[in-house]
Amino acid sequence: MNAKRPKIPLEKLEKSTFERVISFLSMLIFLGSLAFLALVWGDIPDRVPAHFNFSGEVTRHGSQWELLILPIIGLVIYLSMHLLEKYPHMHNYPIEITESNAEEAYKISRSMLGMLKNTILVIFSFIMINASVIALGWGDGVASLILPLVFLGTGLPIIIAIVKLVKLSLRDGT
């Protein structure tokens, strides 16, 4: 169980420069989307797109206040995953975690969570901006790109992490 897994100090699991840049850029996009919403808030009509189907067509409209739910949910998920990143010994793994592979496995899992939390923050920002653009009548938006972005943005980091962990297990003989 998780209790028997080795605990590695966070300093040894430090983020790479690439991971720091991705985190910075995702937070910049998130803050930029909030600034955008603040700038256009007075021009947004009372009814805004609130749900899209698989084709990207609007299937439900809601109050303009629903636009605030998106960044709130994105931020809550981001902060929850940020906290979870700090406890990689508690994550679920498709391999057995041993003293010899723990540090590398924890880095892989922490990195995957980092990519997921940043992707989710950007996706929620993107959905909010897309709904705002449509509500303002500035165009049809790009809602049809959201679903592929969700699948690629969340699926790819998971697949990459699983492949790395399996390779680690095969190399380690566990």
UniProtKB/TrEMBL annotation:
Keyword set, alphabetical order? Membrane, Transmembrane, Transmembrane helix
Q: Can you tell me where the transmembrane regions are?
A: 21-42, 62-81, 120-139, 145-166
Record-given protein name: DUF1648 domain-containing protein
The record lists the lineage as:
Bacteria, Bacillati, Bacillota, Bacilli, Bacillales
Top-level taxon of origin:
Bacteria
Q: Which organism is it from?
A: Evansella cellulosilytica (strain ATCC 21833 / DSM 2522 / FERM P-1141 / JCM 9156 / N-4) (Bacillus cellulosilyticus)
Its GO biological process annotations read: response to toxic substance
Outline the extent of the DUF1648 domain: 28-74
Q: Which Pfam families match?
A: DUF1648 (PF07853)
